[in-house]
Specification:
Oligomer: single chain
Distance between the termini: 24 Å
Bound molecules: nicotinamide-adenine-dinucleotide
Strand content: 15-25%
CATH topology of one domain: Rossmann fold
Structural class: alpha/beta
Strand order of the largest sheet: 3-2-1-4-5-6-11
Order of helices and strands: HEHEHEHEHHEHEEHEEEHEEHHEHH
Number of strands: 13
Shape: globular
Number of helices: 13
Helix content: 40-55%
């Protein structure tokens, strides 16, 4: 479970305590941590998830612990009845359900569009019907595509390189239009490469940090697509959850605003592999055993990613809490324990 500093908890508890909120995709990686934090802040949380990229284990644990403040709707955001049940009474809807991964979207463009774009429209309609005050949407740094300059800031024109990125830009466009047409307040958080405990390493579309962790901890070399010079603004999940809670708590209307949520620092994939190897493998063997295996570059992957977080700082008072080294160490510790408990491999 992620830890928020006492002063953050003191500031957010009065906002969320006793409040009804809805989290779409709440059985997933970021959604699960958000649900934990909202629950700890005293909110009543309704989760809707179709479990297409997660399982019910974490939500089930919470349900057992406190059934009165958690509701789980096993269903799709494309199903209006299931959505209405989840959004009922919610004053804030956190919309995180999506078909994730650039590479999955290249293989499944129509499904990606239907869930991420049409699904967002359905979530906004459900929020409107429930008279929610705000919808906080998880969108993505992939919206920017390759820009000439770094860091990437919100005034840059989006240039999606993949169906996933296009679907997220569409979601932002729809959210802005719903704010202007219906007065439903929305805010879009462009998450930059979020990582941390409980992120899945299970599919061929796993994100780079869990994929590297799994290979390194099971004695295999990490796989790098391309030369490893691509860089990313890796954002520990606590930071993403903090920004999301602040966005849901903001008093003033946000009116479809798009905000970067990253750290303002970047790391190349090669550096990432080296740092993870040093943490994962003891002694002098590390360099040899962890020598990355290079494969062909993949379409849709952007070259560099680095967030300008000045706007999120100004609007939300967002300041990253956990740095890269600490975040990696915590993530690897969790992956190690998880592999040990599941038998690994
Ligand atoms: N992890 C990242 O680095 C990152 C970066 C940018 C944006 N995001 C966005 O943040 C959000 C959460 O991402 P995550 O990393 O936790 O991914 P995740 O796959 O762990 O979580 C998404 C959840 O949505 C659920 N879902 C998918 N389709 C659904 C549907 N039709 N109806 C209901 N539930 C459905 C999945 O089962 C899963 O539990 C997503 O919107 C993602 O696009 C993530």
């Amino acid at each position: 479970m992620i830890k928020l500093p006492a002063e953050t908890v003191a500031a957010l508890r009065p906002v969320y305590d006793g409040r009804h909120v809805c989290v779409t995709g709440g059985a997933g990686f970021i959604g699960g941590h958000l649900v934990d934090a909202l629950h700890a802040l005293g909110a009543s949380v309704a989760v809707i998830d179709d479990l297409s990229n997660s399982n019910a284990a974490h939500v089930a644990e919470l349900l057992e612990f406190e059934p009165d403040r958690l509701k789980f709707v096993h269903g799709s955001i494309l199903d209006e009845r299931a959505l209405a049940e989840a959004a009922d009474e919610a004053s804030v809807v956190f919309h995180l359900a999506a078909v994730g991964s650039v590479q999955r979207s290249i293989a499944q463009p129509q499904r990606t569009w239907t869930v991420n774009a049409t699904g967002t429209l359905r979530v906004l309609e459900a929020a409107r019907a429930a008279r929610a005050k705000r919808v906080v949407l998880a969108t993505s740094s992939s919206a920017y595509g390759d820009t000439e300059k770094l860091p990437k800031h919100e005034a840059m024109t989006p240039r999606p390189l993949s169906p996933y990125a296009a679907s997220k830009v569409a979601a932002e466009t729809i959210a802005g239009a719903w704010s202007r047409a219906y007065g439903l307040d929305t805010v879009c958080l462009r998450y930059f490469n979020v990582y941390g405990p409980r992120q899945s390493a299970e599919s061929e579309y796993a994100a780079v940090i869990p994929a590297f962790a799994k290979r390194l901890l099971t004695g295999r070399r990490p796989i790098i697509y391309g030369d490893g010079q691509r860089s990313r603004d890796f954002t520990f999940v606590t930071n993403a959850v903090l920004a999301t809670l602040l966005a849901g708590a903001k008093d003033q209307p946000l009116a479809g605003l798009v905000l970067n949520v990253g750290t303002g620092k970047r790391t190349s994939i090669l550096e990432l592999a080296e740092q993870m190897a040093a943490l994962a493998i003891e002694g002098d063997e590390a360099g040899v055993a962890a020598e990355p295996e290079h494969r062909a570059e993949r379409p849709g992957d952007i070259r560099d990613s680095l967030a300008d977080i000045a706007l999120a700082r100004k609007v939300l008072g967002y300041e990253p809490l956990v740095g890269f080294r600490q975040g990696l160490a915590d993530t690897l510790a969790w992956c190690r324990a998880d592999l040990a408990s599941t038998g690994g491999g």
